[in-house]
Structure formats: C-alpha cells, structure tokens
Write the structure tokens for this entry.
Amino acid sequence: MAVAQNPLRLRAQPLTAEAFAPFGSLAAIGAGGGRAVNQDRGRRVPGIGDLARDAAATRPVLDVYHLKPSSLPFTLACFERHVLTSQVFIPIRCERLLLAVAPDGADGKPDAARAQAFAAGDDVMIHYRAGVWHSPLIALDGSAVLSMLMWEAGDARDCEEVVPPMTIEIV
C-alpha cells in the first residue's frame, strides 16, 4: 500500500534583494532617488540594469498580465523557466504578489525541496534571470495588473514548464 506523501509547506517570506539575489534582482518603483528628467518635471529612478538574452531570442515582448486573486494557503501547480531570456514584471495595480523560486536540481529540473516562497508588495519590479525556475505570479488580496518584459525565439525554449514531483503548499 502506497503511503500518501506529506506536502512540502513553504512559508512566504518578505521579498528582499538579498534573499532573491540567487534568482534575479529587484528594483524599487518609488520615486525616491534617481535624477531629474523632463526639464525637472520628473525623476528617473534606476530600474533593472542586468537584463540579458541569448541571441536566439530576437523578438522583444512587452505584455500586460491580468491576474485573478488567490488566497493562502496556495498549492503550486508548476515551475516555469525561460532559458533564453530574463523576465521582468512591473506592477501596475496590485495589492500583494506571491512567487516561488527553486534552484536547479542535479537533473536540471527545479529542486522543489530547496524552493523558497516570497510575498511582494506593489512597490517593486521583479527580475528573473534567464533559466531561473519560478512559479507563475500569484495575486493575493485582490486582482492584479502587471507589465511583463522578455524576449522570445518563437519556439519551445520560450517557456518550459515542470510539475513538481511533490505537492507544494505555500502558507
């Protein structure tokens, strides 16, 4: 008789640059800092400076995502990655976002046992490095609208999805 596997439970931690550094980078959306632009009628705040793409990903894509709200606990259905390109999400309207990331395992698939979960506010751009395993973004506390930037080659390398080998519940 097979024994039911207990789910892996991840506690969503606040998203910080230090904790997220192995997977990508963050940039504040707030208007603090930066430099004056447009005849001093605005501020240009530094964003993401380490975007990267493989030469095969020739088509820039700037899309808008509309996410329905979800709640905690949340059961993760898949990890995805984009092997040819960085991917950036910029909140336009949202309360909180939930995301999970996982390093590569020995088999090249996401190492679910070392996955981490984060909760982010509406004040940060999220940049996944090329090839980083991550969950699709999850809107918490209400629907969300985000802008997404990446490059595509027009083939299966644009998005690879993997179902985790165990149930992952984020609390």
